[in-house]
Design a protein that fits this description.
Layout (H helix, E strand, L loop, with lengths): L2 E3 L6 E3 L3 E5 L3 H7 L10 E5 L4 E2 L3 E3 L8 E3 L1 E7 L15 E8 L2 E2 H10 L4 H5 L4 E2 L4 E2 L10 E6 L2 E7 L7 H11 L7 E3 L7 E3 L4 E6 L3 E7 L2
Parallel strand pairs: 3-15, 5-11, 6-18
Antiparallel strand pairs: 1-2, 3-4, 7-10, 7-16, 8-9, 8-15, 9-12, 13-14, 13-17, 17-18
Length: 221
């Protein structure tokens, strides 16, 4: 069973649902040539717990794809059950914040989009959700004003501030809880900024929620 760690606590939390939000940064939408979604009804999809890779872990390159892309994201850790959570109470349901990478089989994604198929294969394959440990969400940590960055082989590939998100953290929690009961241990990937790109076998990745937590991973040869 996949687990994540909250910094400063001995307990590890079992991962439940991994809810991902697509198209939440304007410049990423532009680079992908897509339209902005309705803020009241964001694009949501799932990854299974088998997608989790922890800090310093190895990522298996999917053998069914030849175009693996990185998508850096802030990740929210749910701490309290809620359904149809009002926006003004949404942050009360969060326990922590971290950083992760939504790995995407881009060639497969193009195929399924043409056919109108779900994104399960191109987004939810094993090892497709590497994540850091999580920092307790407490006063002084604003999930809507955090710097995030991704280095690949030491070079910056993505860098942004979460203030650039089209839908803020509270809005995402509220929107997701309209459709799915949020429970302790659920994760919300909050969308990627511009700069997505390809990865190769042997690449090293370092994702950082700057000043708070970082995590490194390696794509297996």
């Amino acid at each position: 069973m996949a687990t994540v760690k909250l910094c400063g606590f001995d307990e590890e939390l079992s991962v439940g649902k991994i809810i991902c939000i697509g198209a939440n940064y304007g410049r990423h939408i532009e680079e992908m040539g897509r339209k902005k979604p309705d803020k009241a009804d964001p694009m949501l999809f799932f990854k299974p717990p088998t997608a989790i890779v922890r800090d310093r872990g190895k990522i298996k390159y999917p053998d069914f794809s030849t175009e693996l892309h990185h998508e850096l994201e802030m990740v929210l850790l749910v701490g309290k059950t809620g359904v149809a959570i009002p926006v003004d109470r949404a942050l009360d349901h969060l326990l922590g914040v971290g950083v992760g990478i939504d790995l995407t089989a881009r060639d497969i994604q193009r195929e399924v989009m043409k056919k109108g198929f779900p994104w399960a294969v191109c987004k939810g394959f094993d090892d497709s959700a590497p994540v850091s440990d999580f920092i307790l969400l407490q006063p002084g940590i604003d999930p809507d004003n955090l710097d995030i960055s991704l280095r690949v082989n030491g070079d910056i590939r993505q860098r942004a501030n979460t203030s650039d998100m089209l839908i803020d953290a509270a809005g995402l929690v509220s929107a997701a809880s309209r459709y799915f009961r949020l429970e302790r241990g659920d994760l919300l990937f909050t969308g990627t900024p511009e700069g997505v790109g390809t990865l190769e076998r042997g690449d090293t990745l370092e994702a950082e929620l700057e000043g708070l937590v970082k995590a490194s991973f390696e794509i297996e040869d």
